[in-house]
Design a protein that fits this description.
The complex is a heterodimer. Chain A is an alpha+beta fold. Chain A is 45% helix and 26% strand. Chain A folds into 4 domains: 57 residues, PAS domain (Beta-Lactamase), CATH 3.30.450; 112 residues, Beta-Lactamase, CATH 3.30.450.20; 92 residues; 144 residues, Heat Shock Protein 90, CATH 3.30.565. Chain A is elongated and about 155 Å long. Chain B has one domain: Response regulator (Rossmann fold, 3-Layer(aba) Sandwich). Classes of the chains: A alpha+beta, B alpha/beta. The interface between A and B is medium-sized, with 23 and 22 residues.
């Protein structure tokens, strides 16, 4: 009631009043003070207008704006509005916070800032295409929706994949204005998963390719040698039907029978080979589905156990095993042990017959990963073969060594399910190093 | 030059090698045959490396080459042959179980003379071998001069 004390006119004084029937009526008052001859305020003269509808509209607008802001905030969507006439890009705070920046770091005063807030932050490889695409949308008369994908640099110098969409606004007559509004959505996680799916698809494609080749190979033998049998049978039948003498018949039999026997041996070998391949594929599929129990693994203990279970084999081959202190990692201990058991088996299998086998297992923490090296002084792997050793059914010396060519394929597959990796470094004639990298243990870091 | 072409078969599968041999004979092709069990043996022969037999100067060869082989695969063998200015004259016929278009394309780019997919259908296989026989008689097989 300061106004009354100061004797000022009343201008647009909005107040809520109770209507006779109980609902609220908003009233806007305007009036002038009136004074009596002694200069004492005697009252106000003016008017009250019912502004309930306007107040309701204002309230709705306030609620709607708050709703819009909270949706933008919770959806992690950055909103933007481009002013073409000034080359100015208004950005909501989320536009910057989703990249880890403080919005105050950027110029947002209505002056040209498109380069600072957008173009300069785009990845080198995406910049030209992304910026070009936006210009084309505008230059082409803003037909339909604008849509763009690019990487933007975050405060931590990571690259955030952004999915940008927008549309140029039209005025009430449908003419294009110079304003384009849109949103930025962080799709980094979706891109990561997409890359993972692509890698898996490639792996699957490779498995199908290799499996189909390796199954077809024995099939060629089965079919080919059964046709050979057929030829032999036809030959003998012709002989019989042709009324040849016993002597000639016997001679034909003596040449055809060993051939027929050989064909049968080949056919059965082919069938056995296919059976083995199918068993191997089944094994691979099972290992890819086995439930994992992820926990911290004491690798010193695991490798110790493995060493004692391999003691006999190592003694028999006069091999020497050295194990250094190993960092702990995180994964499924049974599967991890299986991988290392496999690597040690391989070291024994592919040892150089000319010198006693030495296996050394070392480990260290390298940039947040527990990295292990299984080193041997065996035959080694030629460089052009190193990329194939993890491939399905690939074997180095199929005639000299046993095995189904699955060990390293399964090792890589199980490790990848535990966010682990495996690769090989090798020099033919000197030896191989298999390098396994695993996520670190959660404890004792 | 009237001399007998020597057929080189690079094939790790004994059964396949025997089927190729039997069907060459059935199609009336009686040229001498040398069989290699992997890519390395084949390369050693052609480039006269390591142990085992080496190619002779003045002989004419045709190579039937499988792709998936241990130690060195067929495309690597093909690549090395075609990179050598003398050996590149040898006609190379890929005989493989894969009909992957990318693989076929790669071999043709590298310069193989023909590409035959090992068909499971035996009649087609025989046809392919017959075509090969025709190929052997039609193509002028150049001799390789001197040491490469």
């Amino acid at each position: 009631m300061e106004i009354f004390q100061q004797r000022d006119p009343v201008v647009d004084l909005d107040k809520a009043m109770m209507h006779k029937d109980g609902h609220i009526v908003w009233v806007s008052s305007n009036g002038f003070p009136e004074f009596n001859s002694d200069g004492i305020l005697s009252g106000y003269r003016g008017s009250d207008i019912d502004i309930t509808e306007r107040k309701q509209a204002e309230e709705e607008l306030r609620v709607s704006e708050a709703r819009f802001k909270s949706i933008i905030a919770v959806s992690n969507t950055g909103a933007w509005e481009y002013h073409r006439d000034r080359d100015y890009l208004w950005c909501s705070p989320e536009y910057f916070t989703m990249l880890g920046y403080d919005p105050d770091e950027f110029t947002m005063d209505g002056s040209a800032n498109l380069s600072q807030v957008w173009i300069d932050l785009i990845h080198n490889e995406d910049r030209e295409k992304a910026a070009g695409h936006f210009s084309e949308y505008l230059a082409g008369g803003s037909v339909g929706m604008y849509e763009n994908h690019f990487r933007m640099k975050s405060r931590d110098s990571d690259w955030i994949w952004i999915w940008s969409r927008g549309q140029t606004l039209r005025d009430s007559r449908g003419n294009l204005t110079d304003r384009t509004v849109g949103t930025h959505i962080d799709i980094t996680e979706a891109k990561r998963i997409q890359a993972l799916i692509d890698a898996k698809n490639k792996e699957l494609e490779q498995i199908v390719y290799v499996a189909s080749h390796d199954l077809r190979s024995p099939l060629v033998n089965v079919d080919g040698f059964s046709r050979e049998l057929d030829y032999s049978l036809k030959e003998l039948t012709t002989m019989l039907d042709g009324g040849k003498g016993m002597e000639e018949l016997e001679k034909a039999l003596r040449t055809e029978l060993p051939d027929m026997k050989k064909s049968i041996v080949r056919i059965r070998a082919g069938a056995r080979q296919m059976d083995n391949l199918l068993k191997g594929l089944l094994k691979l599929s099972r290992s890819g589905r086995a439930a994992l129990q992820i926990e911290d693994i004491d690798m010193n203990e695991c490798i110790g156990q493995l060493a004692s279970s391999l003691a006999f084999t190592l003694q028999e081959t006069e091999a020497e095993l050295t194990v250094e202190d190993l960092p702990a990692c995180r994964g499924d201990s049974v599967q991890v042990m299986q991988v290392f058991s496999n690597l040690m088996d391989n070291a024994v299998k592919y040892r150089d017959p000319d010198r006693p086998l030495k296996i050394k297992i070392r480990g260290a923490m390298e940039a947040d990963r527990a990295v292990y090296r299984v080193e041997d002084n065996g035959m080694g792997i030629a460089e052009n073969h190193q990329e194939y050793v993890f491939e399905l059914f690939h074997r180095l010396e199929p005639e000299k060594t046993e095995g189904e060519g699955l060990g390293l394929t399964i090792a890589r597959q199980t490790l990848s399910r535990m966010y682990g990796e495996i690769r090989v470094e090798s020099q033919p004639g000197k030896g191989s190093v298999f390098i396994v990298s695993m996520p670190p243990a959660w404890k004792n870091q | 030059m009237n001399q007998e072409v020597i057929i080189l078969i690079a094939e790790d599968d004994e059964g396949h090698a025997e089927l190729i041999r039997k069907n060459l004979a059935r199609a009336g092709i009686t040229n001498p045959i040398i069989h290699f069990r992997d890519g390395q043996e084949t390369v050693n022969f052609l480039f006269r490396n390591g142990e085992g037999p080496h190619r002779k100067t003045g002989e004419a060869y045709v190579l039937l080459l499988d792709i998936r082989m241990p130690r060195m695969n067929g495309t690597d063998v093909l690549e090395r042959i075609k990179a050598d200015k003398e050996l590149r004259k040898i006609p190379v016929i890929m005989i493989t179980t894969t009909d992957d278009p990318r693989e076929v394309e790669r071999c043709h780019t590298l310069g193989c003379s023909n590409y035959i997919t090992k068909p499971v259908e035996y009649d087609m296989f025989v046809d392919a071998i017959r075509q090969l026989g025709l190929f052997l008689t039609v193509v002028m097989v150049p001799t390789i001069n001197g040491n490469h």
